[in-house]
Amino acid sequence: MSESKAPNNTVVLVIAVIVIVLLGGFIYWYKTSAPEPELTPAPPVAAPEPVAPAPEPKPAPVPEPEPEPEVEPEPVAEVAPPEPEVELPPLDSSDEFVNEQLTPEVEAPLLGLIVPDEVVRKTVRAVIGVADNRLVNQYRPVMSPLPTMKVIETTSGPDAEYRLTEDNYQRYERHLKLMESIEPATLASMYQEMAPIFNEAYAEQGLEGDFKEVALNAIDNMLATPEVNKPLTLQRPAVMYTFADPKLEALPDPQKLMLRMGPENRKRVKAYLEELKVELEKVD
Questions:
Q1: Are 228 and 145 in contact (CB under 8 A)?
Q2: I want to staple 225 with a disulfide (CB 3.0 to 4.6 A). Which of 85, 89, 219, 258 is the partner?
Q3: How far is the C-alpha of 111 from the C-alpha of 104, rounded, in Å?
Q4: What is the rounded distance in angstroms from the CA atom of residue 86 to the CA atom of residue 101?
Q5: pLDDT in tens, 122-135
Q6: Rounded to whole angstroms, how far apart are CA atoms 147 and 172?
Q7: Residue 211: which of 118, 121, 119, 128 has the closest Cα?
Q8: Three-state SS for 163?
Q9: Among the residues of the chain, which ranges form H helices?
Q10: pLDDT for the residue numbered 2
């Protein structure tokens, strides 16, 4: 930065102080001097020249203040435009939309487990049933596991008893893979987008309220399934198998289904449902 031609204000002030001090000393000496009386002339004695006071040391010039560094303005973060809302189809034509939502998440062979028509309505009916502690046998949204249940006979006679085999638990593997192929957070997000359709299907059943609360009640009922650490013994008093333990037979049908899946499968389902419940509770 080049120096200014005009004198600095501080320098002007210092020079003015020095001039006043020198001028004041000279006037003081002139007033106190008196002439000598006239006597025999004597060689004139030169009056001593007044000694000027030593000049005050010039103070060091004050350095000019350095200019403050220019601060570049922080870049303003660009705000991404809001994503356009998903345009939902009418309930009567929502199957194709549901398939489009599931296809990126689920492998094609597993998609075949989902009944392709009236998916939303069937799902709503099934969830209402579980929330009421019952299973819907008609209009299921998902195919039943195949083959049929496998058991071995442990005692014979009129009161014969049976036990589920390990092969029976494998019947549910594809259904569990279908469940686990969609992250709970993703499923909750899907529901949030499609909530109006689900609520419409729920209202068609002559019911009022938010279908999400029904889904949460259904999840709670499944999570309440007791843990049984002993082998499950069955009886067959008629066509259907029943639990030999009256307490287990008295459980709601959804919980008896959880028991028939086997302990490892039940653990997987409960872990998934617990996480899904957390994610659904975040949904508005």
A1: no
A2: 258
A3: 11
A4: 11
A5: 999 999 999 999 99
A6: 10
A7: 128
A8: strand
A9: 9-31, 95-102, 108-111, 119-131, 166-170, 173-180, 184-204, 211-223, 246-249, 253-260, 263-282
A10: 38
DSSP 44: P
- Rounded Cα distance between 18 and 53, Å, is 11
CA terminus-to-terminus distance, the chain:
62
Place of tokens 């007044």: 50
Q: Report residue 268 as tokens.
A: 């997987």
Tokens of 272: 């998934």
Query: Would you say residue 52 has pLDDT above 90?
Result: no
Do the beta carbons of residue 222 and residue 273 sit within 8 Å?
yes
DSSP state of 261: T
- For residues 248 and 115, give the distance between their C-alpha atoms in angstroms, rounded to a whole number: 31
Q: Cβ(268)–Cβ(180) under 8 Å? A: yes
Question: Could you tell me the pTM of the whole model?
Answer: 0.68
Block residue for tokens 């617990």: 274
263-282 helix and 211-223 helix, angle to the nearest 10 degrees: 150
Helix (H, G, I), strand (E, B) or coil at 216: helix
Provide the residue type at 101 as one letter: Q
Residue that has been written with the tokens 């593997």 in this structure: 173
Q: Which tens digits make up the pLDDT trace of 30-45? A: 233 333 333 334 445 4
Structure tokens given for 44: 């004139």
* Cβ-Cβ contacts under 8 Å for 138 (sequence gap 6 or more): none
